[in-house]
Structures are given as structure tokens and as C-alpha cells.
Amino acid sequence: MYQNQGGYPQQGGYPPGGYPQGGYPQGGYPQGGYPQGGYPQGGYPPGGYPPPPQPGFQPAGYGAPAYGDAGYSPNVGVGEDGEVKGFDFTEQSIRKAFIRKVYSILMCQLLVTMGFIALFLFHGPTKAWAARNPWMFWVAFAVVFVCLIAMACCDGVRRQAPMNFIFLAIFTVAESFLLGVTSSVYDVGAVMMAVGITAGVCLALTIFAFQTRWDFTTMGGVLLCATVVLLLFGIIAIFIPRNNIVTVYASLGALIFSMYLVYDTQLMMGGKHKYSISPEEYIFAALNLYLDIINIFLYIPDYHWRRSRLGNE
User: Does residue 33 carry a pLDDT above 60?
Assistant: First the structure.
């Protein structure tokens, strides 16, 4: 016998004859009974059915196949690498945009520099004015020095636009003026030969930096030591102005700054290399490449430039 009719028996399970007369115990099924049509054969999905569609905006992926159904894809409504479709914010895309920006700035700098060099080489009044006003050379040198120190040492100067572009433009104009004045005292053929050699060397080194598996980003300390040796050797070459010493000095300078060009190019590329420049440092990256090219331009033909100037004198 049951102890009461308010629920199931405490022990012993259901009685052999089935449930007692009077229906199910209190607290059982709801008063409304089963829903019309019955429950589905497979049961409800674990997370329940989605709400019915509403007019207006629908969340991404609404109406897509459920998990485990045929045609289900975990990336429905999602782009490559889990990003929103139509917007690619992956590291590779950011790095490519950074490289394009750096080379665009670098090309503008080189065009301005070539314009100044051509003006001082082929325009006689400009060349004569530079010869009558040598103090302008030192003014431009001071401007280059100040801008270079400011951009190298102050993060805000080289990162915040438009201040970074203003400083870079001032530096580029002053450096181009220095190169124009320097080129005006040499033979036109020697300068044009230097431009051609520099362009060929820089193109070959850039292709090498993009293709090689060697990681030059770990050679920063070696390049620094080589630069110090070159500086000391240059001081010695001032007091011993012999052609052999000048040739060795120019060759070492061209070699070291060629390695700097590969080093800075791989820092800009990032990716498989150990060290890289942040995409926010596009001004600093363009400045590094520009200085490498300018130094190669100055060192490669140094011996030939000296000979051409002595011949003219």
C-alpha cells in the first residue's frame, strides 16, 4: 500500500499493478498536457531553437545550418583567420600595407633628391649661387642634424601625423640641398655614373633581402662595430690623404652600408625574421632606407669623384 497519494512511494519502486487510480501524482506533467502535434522524434536541440526572424537587422549567421547538420561550417559569416568578412586585419596584410607605405615615402624622397642634384648640375646660375654662398651648406647641415636627432630620439615626432611628415620633409629638402651642393663641384659624368651604380646596387640588394633565407636582423651589433671601425679609419684617411687609403675607405663604406640596406629592408619586412619594425614606424623605416641609399651613393664612386675633381682642377 502507498503511504499517501501525494507522490511516488519512498521505497520499493512502482507497484506491480501499475499506477494507482486517480491519475498521475501531483507535481507531474503540466495541466496543459502534451503540445499539439507531439514532440519531435529527435528531441529538441541542446541550445533550443532560434527565435523567429524579426523585421530589420538579423544577427550574422542567422538561419545557417546548425552544428552537426549537413552543410554546417564553423566560419559562416566570418572571413579569413576569423576576421569579419570584407575586412582583413591579419598580420600579413598589415605588413604588406606597411611596406607599400614605406616605399611610397622613399620614392618621393629620392625624387626630390634627384631633382636637387639635377638642378645644381645642369643649371649654371644655381651652381654659381651655391659657390658664392658656402654658408648655406652649413645651415643645411645643421638642419639635417637637428631633424635626424629629433626623429631618431623622440617617438612623438616620428609617429604623430602630420608632425612626422613635416620633419621628414624638412630633413629630405635639407639633405637634398647638401647633395646638390656637393655634386655641383664634380663632373656631370661622374655624378651620373654614381647614380646609375647606386640604383643598380640598391635594386639588387633589395631583391636579395626579399628572397634570401639568411636573417640579417641579428647582425645589428656587428654592423655597429663595423661603423665605428669605418669612422676611425675615415679620421686616419683625413691625415693621410693617399689614393690607396681613400679607395679602401670608400670600398669599406660601400660594403657596410650595403649590408645596412639589407638589414633595414628585412627589419621592415618582418615575418620570418627575428626582429622587425612596428608598422607604426613607417617614417623611421623610410628614413633608414633613404640614409642607406644616400650613403651608398656617396661611398661607391668616392675614388672616381676625387679623380674627376682633381682632373678638373
Answer: no
Please report whether residue 72 resides in a domain: no
86 or 74, higher pLDDT: 74
What is the pTM for the complete model shown?
0.68
**C-alpha span between 266 and 221 (Å, rounded):** 15
Q: Is the dihedral of CA 133, 135, 139, 145 positive or negative?
A: positive
Q: Which domain holds residue 195?
A: 91-312
Neighbours of 270 (CB within 10 A): 20
In Å, what is the CA distance from 18 to each residue of 14, 23, 82, 91?
A: 7, 11, 57, 69
Angle at 200 between CA 283 and CA 259, to 5 degrees: 55
Say how many domains are in the chain.
1
pLDDT at 218 over 80: yes
For the chain, the distance separating the N- and C-terminal CA atoms, rounded to the nearest angstrom, is 131
